[in-house]
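Obj: model holo form, ligand = cytidine-5'-monophosphate.
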Amino acid sequence: MRTAAIVPAAGRGERLGPGTPKALRTIGGAPLLVHAVRALARARAVDLIVVAAPSDDVLAVERLLADFEWGAEVRVLPGGEDRRESVARALAALPAEVDVVLVHDAARPLAPPELVDAVAAAVRERADACVPVVPLADTVKEVAGGTVVRTLDRQQLRAVQTPQGFRRFLLAKAHAWAAEAGEQELATITDDAGLVEKLGGCVVAIPGAEEAFKVTRPLDLVVAEALLAKQRADGAR
Ligand code: C5P
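Output (holo structure tokens):
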């Protein structure tokens, strides 16, 4: 067992509207979490999947995931107050022999298994960490108090997806740093790679996949549902 995938799935998903935690919202008859775990389990690189579930729903999530044959070991533990804490808890629970760790949002249910393998391979072969990136469709402007301050150079910018991959010791070191850091230092760090960058780690960027988009708002659920239906019709799932 050398490569483990952590799935932070403990968010309430408030931007999706009230109700069931986001990871348990369904598309194509199954929760987002089930699709995300399937993407990881289908990747050749992944030996173990650790899910950080909403603390009230750990048993329910365990039962849900026990209904499937995954082809990789799947464990469930309670997540934390925020995404970072959920990842840190799962990281602390990994067996000693794991040396590469992927972190993949439950909210990205349709990431291709090939992308998962490409991220893991990049870490094994040439990097401290790896993130999948996609170009931005929109122009990006800095806005303050309702007024545009400046327009950023879109050519230089990328949107970052998950799975993100890491050498385990470095991700653990980054999370240990974050646990001691002040709120201000952490304010602009919104992903795991951001923590590793802060420690000066080399983070390589590889091409991401459109299908790995994050389900955040109600429209994203509609898009995910449609994409899944198309993949099923094409025989890809
Ligand atoms: O809210 P957002 O879409 O940024 O959440 C990204 C991922 O982090 C989701 O998969 C969510 O379930 C997870 N998360 C978590 N623990 C929290 C908050 C969010 O695992 N306390």
